[in-house]
Amino acid sequence: MTPAPRTPGRGDSPKIRIALISLTYLFFAAFVFLPLALVFAQAFQKGWQYYRESITEPFALEALKLTLLTTAIVVPLNAFFGMSAAWAVTKFHFKGKTVLKTLLDLPFAVSPVIAGLIFVLLLGSRTPLGSWLGERGITIIFSTPGIIIATLFVTFPFVARELIPLMEAQGREEEEAALTLGAGGWQIVRKITLPNIRWGLLYGMILCAARSIGEFGAVSVVSGHIRGLTNTIPLHVEILYSEYNYTASFAVSSILVFLALLTVILKGSMEKAYLKTNPQSAKNHEH
Amino acid sequence: MSRFQKLPRHILPGFGLSMGYAVFYLSAIVIVPLSTIFLNTLQMDAETFFSAVSAPRVLASYRLSMTTAFFAALFDALAGMLTAWVLVRYRFPGRKLLDSLVDLPFALPTAVAGICFATLYAPGGWLGVFFEKWNLPVINTPSGIVIALVFIGFPFVVRTIQPVLEELEPEVEESAYSLGANRWQTFRKILFPHLLPALLTGTTLAFARSLGEYGSVIFIAGNLPMKTEIAPLMIMSKLDQFDYAGASAVALVLLAMSFGMLLVLNSIQSWQQKEIR
Questions:
Q1: Residue of A nearest to B31 (CA)
Q2: How far is B256 from chain A (nearest CA, A)?
Q3: Count of CB atoms within 10 A of residue B125's CB?
Q4: Across the interface, do B163 and A34 touch by the CB < 8 Å criterion?
Q5: What pTM was computed for the model?
């Protein structure tokens, strides 16, 4: 036998290999390629002109604006939280660390509909807090702040769960060395920690942005579906679809598909850079 | 590690600040809002609570969510195992493309996935025509729900098995061959037991995600009472009727199921750690 590379296809006969690869392609065809092709086929069904009108009509643009605003607020807030949580969890020893780490992942275990429900129960106009705010002219539910808060909840863990394993693997030696050389706290974070975690941070922020652009269930509960006011892009897709305006619905969806593909590509190329900054983390890295 | 034990616990600055901020933000965004479900259900008396969660339509929705999530997770286990194996073990044209596209369900908005599958399997749709011919309705049936959930869940299985498969030392398999085991025996006795914890973890994650999934399901499900209403949809319809107490009661049971899954996951992981040792 010729010396084959060590990983690929050890020992599997070509027949099995071809059969398994074909089966995988078949699965991807049904669950990935066909749906993607369908979006573009439907979106351009009535021609380029109709497509352009569907994505540039005022309601679509308003929805896009709200989605971008939400993402622009949610990502920095959750990134800042993720960094401080990761700093506390990985640079110090304290009791209850495991409990804290479990709590950080909690939003992932909660149905999006429940994520919306809890904010209606907390801040809706019929609740004590909601009516108190209402008397002062502040509405949160069925309005933009509600959408932002629900999205904060849903995307809460992304940055923290990328940073914690990374910073755990990197240890504390570099920061401690900087400390003995007389660096201050913020200086250490800026000059040592941030450059070390930059890829993991960016990676977590991209996942956070993708989810906040696409979140549907939670936002659907708190939005109230007011066109031009509290409609995000995914909600706009739903409204168009339920009005049987399939072509416009898929045209707007095609923007989201484009963003999703971009996310997946960025994620792939970033993973390489990320693993280069920290080879040990390859082992504990889940996604 | 032991050489650090004599040192004071907090050498670096910023513990109070970072910990304080993290706990404050966690409480404001997650803990306090989630507690409203418990507070709202505590205000109900036992009878109202039980009549809300044991109404036939609600029970049917729990049953449907459990069974569709179960079958979707089962299918994900097979498809995810296959995909992870092929991506790690073989080199073939398009491998990198498939590897990146595994993450698509994480990145694609659920509503878009929902309308895609509803249109694909609609009568006369690209795949719907075949299922019509075979007399297997997909739209407005539990099988349609399973299809949407398979899409949502399968990256969890692939991404948990892949690193374990990549790390596997070639020597383990080689020694099994040299001792006379064939391919199938090696897979069953050596590889599979090694992959099992990761497979179970990924499948449980897919199941837990499917239990609460909403956006990708509602379009293909048709939402027929007693037949294709999933549990999250029941919460939604109670909210539409301003029945906040009923919605919290239904949500509490669904939350309990999801947290139960978290417990299962934790025990799988501690078992996995024992296996490694």
A1: A103
A2: 10
A3: 19
A4: no
A5: 0.90
